[in-house]
């Protein structure tokens, strides 16, 4: 790898670490919200005593697991990416198509970010709060700013990565979403299930 590729790989490693932190944090928030919901059901049904602020808490935490790990999902080629058309291309044409889609996503996000930042600043300045508990809403509105900012950096990194691949189509891909073969993944999953099932049948 040349100096540019090495720098690209280093930036990708740093960003991956940040994305991992966001997705772990989002998972912990979902776990916490799940148990809050369980406690609410038991408290309401058994004690006839609903938990104070339960609904407001869920509303304030939704952005944490809906938006914060969005860059991780993009990099992992999750459901946020649709590749039905792109998968028809190979080689340099594939990288050109990927570059154009990332460029559109980057432009769209660049337009959205100022508005998201405005919503956060407005909530901070006016002291916006929830209706029932009067809890401040600015932490929840700060989450999209962080999540979209990380995705913005990810898309910027991808643009440089795709330009490199357009110039050198046979180079090892760096800092681009992980591509999965759906058929190969299904076969691998089936191979892991079938031996287990056969072993159980043999035991019986």
What does this protein structure show overall?
With 204 residues, the chain is mainly alpha-helical. It has one domain (3-186). The protein has helices spanning 3-46, 54-66, 70-75, 91-126, 138-167, 182-203. The longest helix has 44 residues, at 3-46.
Task: Outline the secondary-structure elements.
Layout: H1 3-46, H2 54-66, H3 70-75, H4 91-126, H5 138-167, H6 182-203
Query: Order of helices and strands, N to C?
Result: HHHHHH
State the distance separating the first and last CA atoms: 55 Å
The gyration radius over C-alpha positions equals 22 Å
Would you identify the regions where 5 or more consecutive residues have pLDDT less than 50?
none
Overall pLDDT confidence: 88
Number of helices: 6
Shape verdict: globular
Largest sheet: none
The number of E-state strands comes to 0
As for the number of domains, it is 1
């Amino acid at each position: 790898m040349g100096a540019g590729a090495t720098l690209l790989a280093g930036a990708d490693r740093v960003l991956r670490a940040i994305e991992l932190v966001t997705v772990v944090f989002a998972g912990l928030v979902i776990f916490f919200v799940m148990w809050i919901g369980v406690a609410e059901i038991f408290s309401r049904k058994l004690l006839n005593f609903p938990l104070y602020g339960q609904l407001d808490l869920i509303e304030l935490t939704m952005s944490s697991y809906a938006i914060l790990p969005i860059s991780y999902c993009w990099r992992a080629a999750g459901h946020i990416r649709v590749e039905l058309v792109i998968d028809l291309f190979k080689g340099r044409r594939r990288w050109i198509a990927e570059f154009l889609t990332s460029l559109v996503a980057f432009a769209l996000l660049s337009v959205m970010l100022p508005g998201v930042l405005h919503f956060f600043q407005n909530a901070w300045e006016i002291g916006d709060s929830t209706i029932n508990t009067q809890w401040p809403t600015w932490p929840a509105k700060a989450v999209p700013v962080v999540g979209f900012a990380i995705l913005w950096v990810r898309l910027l990194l991808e643009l440089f990565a795709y330009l490199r691949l357009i110039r050198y189509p046979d180079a090892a891909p760096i800092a681009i979403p992980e591509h999965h073969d759906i058929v190969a993944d299904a076969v691998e999953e089936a191979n892991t299930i079938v031996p287990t099932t056969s072993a159980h049948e043999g035991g019986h």
